[in-house]
Amino acid sequence: MNIYVVRHGQTEENLKGTYYGALDCGLTDLGVSQAKVLGERLKDIKFDKVYCSDLKRAGETLKYINAIEEVFVDERLRERNFGVFEGKTFKEIEKEFAEECIAWNDDWKDFRPCGGESFRDSYLRVEAFMENLKEETGENILVCTHGGIVRAMYVYILEGNLDVYWKFGSRNADLSIIKNQSGYFYIDSIIPLEVV
After folding, report:
1. Can you list the domains of the chain with their CATH numbers?
2. The pTM is what?
């Protein structure tokens, strides 16, 4: 099985450099262009099933990928919720939430900002999703999601070692191809978007 994992196109929050997961923003003009490039790249692949985060930026990206009519919206593919940190840059978080920021730096895996999730919380959602993917029977699956979730998928493939989260990047509109052979997942390729 081939699992084509795409990160959504650029948003205004990406331009601002904020932490945002639950903020439901759409794509910039560049983000739309990136989604169109993705659509062109994937146009010849027949997808047996399509999964998408329920957030607007992922759904807008998917509109430009000629997949199939039925899309399975899955909240487990949502970006991590940063709670009170949402929409703020790291400098703003340091200034407004100094004690919380220290706690976050001390325990990045399990610190949970007020109203939000820890990294482990979001990873466990991804782990459950990946376990469900083992049951799929199609040849080609498309997943449209977010940068943190893509990296959490890599963590899952690397046997749940949360420390490797920081060993990967995930840029807007990048494409990752993950293979599943008899329940064994591996990263086949990570393909950056060409400069638009």
Report:
1. 2-80+118-191 (3.40.50.1240)
2. 0.94
